[in-house]
Write a structure and sequence with these properties.
Blueprint lengths: L19 H21 L7 H9 L6 H34 L11 H16 L4 H24 L7 H23 L3 H11 L8 H28 L3 H6 L4 H23 L5 H13 L3 H26 L7 H20 L5
Helix pairs in contact: 1-3, 1-12, 2-3, 3-8, 3-10, 3-11, 3-12, 4-5, 4-6, 4-7, 4-10, 5-6, 5-10, 8-10, 8-12, 11-12, 12-13
Length: 346
């Protein structure tokens, strides 16, 4: 029976880095802190005893307790979206062997956005499940297109060609989104808040719709991690270790698109989380994807949730959308990474 990786002893055995336990503890502590901050801070901050009332005493019907309960779904949603984007970034960097690959940089987010706005404008869609399927289709088609364009010419799909293809595709698709929205004011009203990326409209029904896609994507990421480590050594070496490179790339890319597309459908095109989360973990633990993938999920959840809290505090008494905060922080970091890495392959 064929499989992506044949069961042999040539693949690297699991060696836990000495710093893994320390980094795991730090991430878990940070996760607890950002969850508490997300529940406490906002346009109306609450005290600790009011937080306890809202979480554990359902009979208390005070304004503060209801504020806490309302923030629970938002906090859970931001954690799940951050985890999905962190894992998606790790997969896309591994598949393309590009250290600055990210759903937003490769144009996948914009492709998902285009299909969603087309659905709003021409199909009158309005539910989370409809958003998800359209966003997944747009993300998948865009990913295939960008990889196809980046693979043309001499040298195949090099990191710099993929980034340039992604940037050009993203710009073209963004123009199409604008062209569709401008003559249709009702589409613009419905789309404009979603477009900047936000977790503020989180609902339990949306979270329930999102969770199956998250589970499938992360499971596939875990299953392909050992083979992706072999792929980082080069296609010829990976083939010698029993890895079917083409099949592996397809499966891992589909998992990344699934995670990114589902997140984009419900939260909008939030950028740079996959880039930031993965690079922080790789800096601390090294390139082994068996550790990078799960820890990128944790760090992505922390980064997105704290960005949401920062947006609420900066924009008080309103709020600054989380997509704006992540772009403001992520853009200069991307420039620094590009300068240091010189866009070399992983």
């Amino acid at each position: 029976m064929n499989s992506t990786v044949t069961p042999n002893n040539n693949l690297p055995s699991l060696h836990i880095p000495k710093r893994f336990t320390l980094v795991l503890i730090i991430c878990l502590v940070a996760l607890v802190i950002v969850v508490l901050a997300s529940l406490i801070f906002g346009a109306r901050s609450v005290r600790f005893h009011e937080l306890i009332d809202g979480l554990f005493y359902s009979h208390i019907d005070s304004y503060e307790a209801n504020v806490v309960r309302k923030r629970i779904s938002r906090t859970v949603f931001s954690l799940l979206c951050g985890a999905a984007l962190g894992v998606s970034g790790a997969l896309m960097q591994a598949v393309t062997r590009n250290p600055i690959a990210d759903p937003s940089i490769l144009g996948v987010n914009t492709g998902a956005a285009l299909f969603v706005v087309c659905g709003i404008a021409f199909l009158n869609i309005s539910t989370a499940s409809q958003y998800i399927w359209l966003a997944l289709a747009g993300a998948a088609i865009t990913a295939v297109f960008v990889f196809g364009i980046g693979s043309m010419g001499r040298g195949g799909a090099t990191p710099i060609k993929l980034v340039l293809a992604g940037a050009a595709t993203s710009a073209a698709l963004a123009s199409l989104v604008t062209a569709i929205m401008i003559p249709r004011s009702y589409v613009m009203d419905q789309f404009r808040f979603w477009q900047v990326g936000s977790v503020g409209s989180a609902t339990w029904s949306g979270i329930t719709t999102f969770i199956p896609f998250l589970i499938i994507g992360i499971l596939v990421a875990f299953m392909t991690a050992p083979a992706l480590n072999a792929l980082a050594l080069g296609d010829e070496v990976a083939t010698g270790l029993g890895v079917r490179s083409g099949v592996l790339r397809l499966i891992a890319a589909l998992a990344g698109v699934l995670l990114c597309g589902a997140t984009t459908a419900l939260a909008g095109p939030i950028g740079f989380i996959g880039l930031l989360a993965t690079h922080v973990i790789r800096l601390l633990l090294g390139p082994d994807l068996r550790f990078v993938i799960p820890m990128s999920a944790l760090s992505g959840a922390v980064i997105l949730t704290i960005s949401d809290v920062i947006g609420r505090l900066i924009g008080s008494p309103g709020e600054l959308e989380v997509g704006v905060v992540t772009a403001f922080v992520g853009a200069p970091i991307l420039i620094i990474l590009a300068m240091k890495a010189k866009v070399r392959s992983l």
